[in-house]
């Protein structure tokens, strides 16, 4: 049973992203595309699963710009489409989208962006709404799981009314939470694709300014439509002492805060599902209820700023706004009910204490001090640990203080101790190679350090090929390290051009990383990071081969892929306890303290190292780590 | 003992890969079928793999759903698949009335495995619980699961234990029904057995 269940009116427990996927199905979506990124990935994963049955085309595109281009092709040709991404992905796609809004489309297209307040699994916590507003894309923000579904369906309809793309903005706590959803009808009709060649979709040259004006005009029309949106409503007393304006995830926090504080009778809530452009009448009617307005939203002060601007133009000299700029909520990080209760309580001069100070003190004293931390780490058997270990060794031997430009993926852990703190820079997808390409040209300023750029296989296809071409053509002195673990491991193993499957599990041709690189005329060295001696040597040799761009492909499947395929351990590892001198050895617990594989543990009683057999994958990489050669790998027959 | 409040806040906590989300889905589905409004929020620690994972299950009779994260000091039940994670949740979300059902088998964090940090003893954990919560039940669910031939059954043993405490206003047969819908063939029998062993471990 999945999101394609044909039982209108039945209630299901759906994840926000599943509800969005269901909403797209109910809208008769034909094409769905994405590049994976938490918290947006499950939309395309779920649509991919039902693609065959429902007659959809679903793909994991190589990056967000291409994903939006592929989806737009459908929307230009009469087929409804959705493209999903995380906030960082919108930056990649923005270049195309800023032009698409000028040309318009002819069938519904929804741009789903999952923001990550608190950056729980992101390198930033950008608020995507500012970018959508900057290029005149209407914004819808679902607050509940039911709204995730209903709003997605409505977004397609709106998109067709205005012949333009519509953004559905969700956040981690909505996309990744689960709740009750009542299903609607699934359409029986199939899309037909035809591109009307008599039409030109373009925003080039002199027409762009005119089109830009037309898009602004369209925004006014959207604001009119938003006046009657069922996703905007008010609850509370007619003339509340405090009015809360809220949207998306903020609404759930606000409603719970009001219930918990028991102030339903004195606080009013204007909930906005359509946050840009603002529906003037709705805003005006509700702002007239109270002069004191608290705005609750995640992440930036988007709604707050827009409301203030509205007031200056339409209702001057009356309101006092509270929210992020007044310091009542934070302009960064996640919201929660406690924070909203704190903001409301301070504005109503109420006493609210989340937890009794005595309990908090007691809990700190008797328990908190005893809870061990769990920090970020590479998994046991992770081939990246081996690659970083070999690289660290080679850089040390090389002795020229090499610089490592990192990138986005599991291997970003290379910035932390379990990746031996090897990474010096991390920014956006593909930026490792771009930065490295620049570093590799600094020789005229006396730069003498070797430069390495790290990438995974999925990131390689996403955004590393253009900066690699840049480096080759500019003759940058750079080593590109492709850590190919055969999947987009960070987000759940979505396929990419280097794998042999598509989004629905269908067979797809593999693009070879090495053939692509070789065809560009760069020397390519291939290693298996589990073969530690050979990998160390390869890294050292490639580092010495100065003056040009070269590539190392360090290839070994992710340990989780092995686990999922139930391939079992590669070798049986054990410690020869008579060889391990433990605390008496001069190594200062080198294996556990420095190598930091979770499969190796310090046995407190024996004062020696031990293999944790429940965790160890038998990769054998740690064999060379022990100065006494006490770690032994026995081949499994 | 049967919680009768609005909403009921249950936090299921453990380490990535222990199957904590499956429990929240089983319980959430069963409560939804009984007419409740459910919100399940998942929180991840900074770690991608093997890090702290918690599911917040909020069970309500009201129409407007509760938010995906329990406010501080409001967890009515903490179901712990890993003892130190149970402690972590008690210190962030517990109050004097919290009920705790926890597995006793640790999964050592890296800092403990490499000998930099000490893991709290079972005595220490029990002493903390006596001070901080209303009542705690201890189940060696991992050993029970291993006895059935698969450590992955730990989560189902713990689900059985939770139902065995009768804290939730839901009959055990409702969860067994969900188990039968979720698991087919040979897997069904062993999951039902794991549930039964967990149930009887606390009754």
Average pLDDT taken over every residue of chain A: 94
Strand order of the largest sheet of chain A: 3-2-4-5-7-6-12
Strand content of chain B: 15-25%
- What share of the residues of chain A does DSSP label as strand, in percent? 15-25%
Q: Helical percent range of chain A?
A: 25-40%
Physical arrangement of strands within the biggest beta sheet of chain B: 2-3-1-4-5-6
Low-confidence blocks of residues of chain A: none
Categorize the overall geometry of chain A.
globular
Uncertain regions spanning at least 5 consecutive residues of chain B: none
Give me the number of helical elements of chain A. Answer: 20
The beta-strand count of chain A equals 23
Number of helices of chain B: 8
Gyration radius of chain A (Cα, Å) is 28 Å
Q: How many beta-strand runs of chain B?
A: 6
Based on the structure, what is the oligomeric state of the protein chains?
heterodimer
Describe, in plain words, how this protein is organized in 3D.
The complex is a heterodimer of chains A (637) and B (203). With 637 residues, chain A is α/β, with parallel strands linked by helices. Chain A has 20 helices and 23 strands. In chain A, the strands form six sheets. In chain A, strands 3-2-4-5-7-6-12 form a seven-stranded mixed sheet. In chain A, strand 13 (292-296), helix 11 (302-314) and strand 14 (320-322) form a beta-alpha-beta unit. In chain A, helix 1 runs parallel beside helix 2 (42-54), helix 1 packs parallel to helix 6 and helix 3 runs parallel beside helix 4 (87-103). The radius of gyration of chain A is 28 Å and the shape is globular. Chain B is of the alpha/beta class. Chain B is 42% helix and 19% strand. Chain B has a six-stranded mixed sheet, with helices on both faces. At the A-B interface, strand 8, helix 9, helix 12, helix 13 and strand 21 of A face helix 1, strand 2, helix 2, helix 3 and helix 4 of B. Strand 8 (178-182) of chain A pairs antiparallel with strand 2 of chain B.
